[in-house]
Structure formats: C-alpha cells, structure tokens
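#struct-help
A.M.: can someone run this one for me? Single chain, 171 residues.
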Amino acid sequence: MLLQTVRPNIVQAIRAYRVEDLMAAAEGAGQHFLYANLSAAQSKQEVLETIAQAFMFPAHFGKNLDALYDCMTDLVHKAGTQPGFVVVLEQLPDNPRFDRESREQLLDVFRDAADFWAERRIAFRCFYSFAVSRGSETGTWTGEPAAPATPPEKPVARNLPKNGTNPNFGM
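D.P.: on it. Structure tokens below:
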C-alpha cells in the first residue's frame, strides 16, 4: 500500500506521487483526503481562500494562518475520532506576492498540524507542489510563446453527502 511507504506525520514535496494514487490510498486506508489546487491563487489571501473553499471550512474561517491551524486541528479534533489525513496542496504559487517566506509559513502550519495529530497517534500526511513560473517563457524549440497551461481537474471525492457538510472532517 502506498501510504505504508510514507511516514505517518510528515509534510513533503509530492515528487513521484500522483494525486489520484494518493486519493485512492487514502480511501483504501479509510482516511480523509483533502485536495486544493492553488494554480489560480497569487497571494497569501487567495491561497487561504482557495484552501478554505476546497476543504469546506466553516463560514467563520478567519482566512489567516492561525485560523487555518485551528481548522486543521482543534475544530476537527472536537468533531470526534479521526481516521487520518492525506492532504494535497497542488501548485503553491511562486511569485512576489507569495514568496518563499509565505510558502514556508503556510507549510509550517501544516507541519504544526502534523505534530498535533502525531501527539494523538493519528496519521497526517501533507504533500505539496510548487507552481512553475510562467513569466516570459518561450516554447522549447520554436521560440513561440508556450501554450497556457490548464490546471488539472480536481480529483472527485466519492460518496459526498447532499446535506452540505464536509465528509472529509466528519462534521
């Protein structure tokens, strides 16, 4: 099984893992799968808003790093026993409005969440990738502008309830 080869409480680059495989592994292990495609986000605020939407955070989510931590830890912990988490943050921005320091601060929140869940003996694996800067790149051989990249489709979660609650968190 794919998750057996990954430490249970870690934040790491997605590298050779495919999102679909991680989703299937989470489902097979009975763990929550949380996915956010951040390719359209350009700033810290947009990143937080995209994560909040993708993870179906409550309306009162404060859209700051402290609120993100609270939603990933205390709020979920209070909802009851949790089976574990596989989180994918795809295409973290790489631009002046969301620089290296901003990315590290965001990933630190997920590292802190991994520590929180480790203390409770609950697996929390977070995988991330960075967006490729598309500033003024040209085509590889032709010198023509590169075709605009279309963001990959979000993996489809199965068996979603129709009552609007987030099945990923058991709330």
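A.M.: thanks! Confidence is low (pLDDT under 50) at residues 136-147, 159-164.
D.P.: also worth noting: Helices lie at 19-29, 44-54, 65-72, 74-77, 100-119.
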